[in-house]
Please model this.
Amino acid sequence: MYNIGFVILDNADEQKYIDSLKSTQLYVHPINKEEVAETIANYDGVVINEQHMHNIGVICELIILLKKKSNTFIWVISERMNKMNHIVYLQLGIDGILDNESDPEEHKLLMINACNRYNQTYPTMEKTVKSESDATELQLRPCNFSVLLNGKEISLTKLEFKTIEFLQTQQGIAVSYEDIYKNVWENEGADKQYRVSNLIFHLRKKIETDAAHPKYIKTVRSKGYKLAL
Model:
């Protein structure tokens, strides 16, 4: 199932449309525009309903902010006549315009197809890493952004999953803060070391028995981190 955030503008009542998008493959969460940037890592995609042409300024600022934070899918619902707005949104990097006159079923299928295609960039089979003694087994599960560690499934955010996935490809090798940032966020930004360190802190809390003395994600002084199995 894919998690979709539906951004609420102007305190509008969007529940009817949100309900029309829900299915066995989509779970749609209403979310306040002031909160979406901080929680975007929890979503596979975000929908913004333009509602009025004069909202273009607010929506553009929101798109720019979200693109800096994550590479999550972004779609904008807009009236067919607002062609100039559509061009501006697409130039800012959104993934598509959803015509507000179209059947919500079309929107639903567009989102599911996009998320399915994204997941196909990962190997279809679970990735398994074993230590030489076979005492520790780590399975990455791209389908729901979780890991299976010693038989226990642990749910991760998308950013946490991308981090451990990247570290797994460099298993046993020290990876710099810069390289982790580039592979996880895929954009330029400030406070790279802080953002990486904060993400590793939360990841360790989930997978380490003692986060203060990590067994799996090791700190490499003056360098970054490495995955040890």
Observations:
- Confidence is low (pLDDT under 50) at residues 123-128, 130-135.
- The chain is about 40% helix and 25% strand.
- Helices lie at 15-21, 36-39, 56-69, 83-91, 104-119, 158-169, 177-184, 192-207.
